[in-house]
Design goal:
The chain has 8 helices and 11 strands. It is α+β, with helices and mostly antiparallel strands. A hairpin with a 2-residue loop joins strand 2 and strand 3. Helix 7 packs parallel to helix 8. It starts with 14 loop residues before the first strand and ends with a helix.
Length: 307
Amino acid sequence: MANYNPKQAWHRGTAIEVEPGSTVQEQLDLAGLNWEVKLSPTMYAANGEIQVVPGLFSAHRSDTGAFIDTYAKREPWQNADIVGAFNSFCEEADLPMTHLGSLDGGNEIYAAAKLPETIAPSRSVGDLTELFLLLEDGHKNGTGLNVSVYANRLICTNGMKKPVRVGKQIISHVKAFNSARIQGVIAAAHSFIQSKQEEVDRLADVNIDKAEAALQLIAAFGDPKQPVHNQPSIVKTCLRLFGGAGKGSNELSSYNTAYGLLQSVTEYYNHHAKKRGTLEQQFQSVLSGGRANHMQKFERQVVSCYL
């Protein structure tokens, strides 16, 4: 694609595009993940002598020596193991793995598989949201294989992640999937997409004016005792985005609708919030950090008010 800039892609340049038919080793090389987790005994100095802590190991990268975490009764789950599991999952699910990337200095690894469905409000012609099944795993304690759906609105590259649930349980902390479980995850993802499409259609049918939008934004992010011009920048910025400055805000589905209000907040946290840290850290926040929490909380507020 001419003038393509991976830093402006949905993954903020933190991932490579996976070539069909490529091997795990080729994927590791291209993604900068061709290194291993090495363990060394944890030691300390006492009375002038070096002592070893039994059963406690320091995990570090084999290429840079960077510290990862302290392991106790845990074997390293290597990058090749993680990426191999991602490939097996996608192959069993009959989904193409499209991207492979990492965050937190390589401690968090993720793969994206493009789902065949898209979401589009019935009142709009070109307002498409593409969907990826996102697989995540990592090397720090407390991490495990997590599965979620990542929705990327094409018109403005607004993204938001939602964990996949099978029944009432979020799929996470699993080292291996059998065929039945993978198919259960895929079925749960499709069910989520269907409910998300219904939600989008209904929000796009709810008309609200700028005054009502201001009340919603102030309730979520501002001070009800203050006039609009004294509200925090997020309230004023989102109002401008809602009022026509946002990408896609003049689409029939977004213009003066609850759906457009939600998109003004997701655009803010994806593109207009104060830039802290690197692009990698900003994308990590969109996936699982503060930005993700704020977007999901506002979505729950809008849904509870209008649906």
